[in-house]
Design goal:
Cofactor: FAD; FMN
InterPro entries: MMACHC
Organism: Trogon melanurus (Black-tailed trogon)
Distance between the termini: 39 Å
Structural class: alpha+beta
Shape: globular
Largest sheet: 3 strands, antiparallel
GO molecular function, one term: FAD binding
Number of domains: 1
Family: Belongs to the MMACHC family.
């Protein structure tokens, strides 16, 4: 429910819907690269005008919207920002309140070792660890779900030591991706996918063009 999200945030970040409005958080799993992105690029290669992943997600979510012709469906993408430069929604908070992934933050560590440093939080999924992404929100403004019960996300990094390790790795060594493996995962990005996301966005087009027969 939108109300679960609004309840944990300052009014400046609230979504402008009644509390009982139905919302879905959309995640992409490691297999998205082969199952969605590559076929999309194969078909739409000449129409790619911005980030290919964003465009692929947009394409698939607009197809979801078409499946509900009698419903109003609002989509907010993870990359959208307001004129104030604030994100349109806080993806990690949304994933946490929806029970999709646990948002580990500084407040989850009892004996905080960081003093005055700014420490950013990170979501960990019980099956994919850090090998996933939050891509968007689907909102159904005309559907009110008064009796929907909230599910807590799985607390899969449950010890103090592991939480400190996770936040340290994410804040200071995020490039090496070790934080993603803080728990044992069922599935992770392929080497090709890692290479793609490790490449600066402007160079990804070139990377995608290197092996046309693969895509």
């Amino acid at each position: 429910k939108v109300g679960w999200y609004n309840a944990v945030l300052q009014p400046a970040f609230h979504l402008p819907y009644p509390d009982d409005t139905l919302a879905f958080v959309v995640l992409s799993t490691p297999s998205m690269f082969d199952k969605a992105l590559k076929p999309f690029l194969n078909k739409e290669r000449l129409k790619i005008i911005r980030d290919p992943v964003d465009q692929c997600v947009s394409h698939h979510l607009s197809r979801v919207k078409e499946k509900f012709p009698d419903q109003k469906v609002d989509i907010i993408f993870d990359y959208e920002i307001l004129p104030s430069r604030k994100p349109k929604f806080l993806a990690q908070t949304a994933a946490h309140v929806a029970g999709a992934a646990y948002y580990y933050q500084r407040k989850d560590v009892k004996l905080d070792p960081w003093g005055k440093k700014k420490i950013y939080g990170v979501c960990i999924h019980p099956k994919y660890g850090g090998w996933f992404a939050i891509r968007g929100l689907l909102l159904f403004p005309d559907i009110q779900v008064l009796f929907l019960k909230q599910s807590a996300p799985v607390d899969c990094v449950s010890t103090e030591e592991k939480r400190i390790e996770l936040l340290e790795q994410f804040n200071y060594h995020w490039q090496d991706g070790r934080y993603r493996d803080i728990i044992e995962v069922k599935e992770k990005y392929s080497e090709e996918q890692k290479a793609y996301f490790a490449t600066p966005p402007a160079e990804r087009f070139r990377l995608l063009g290197l092996n046309p027969e693969k895509h």
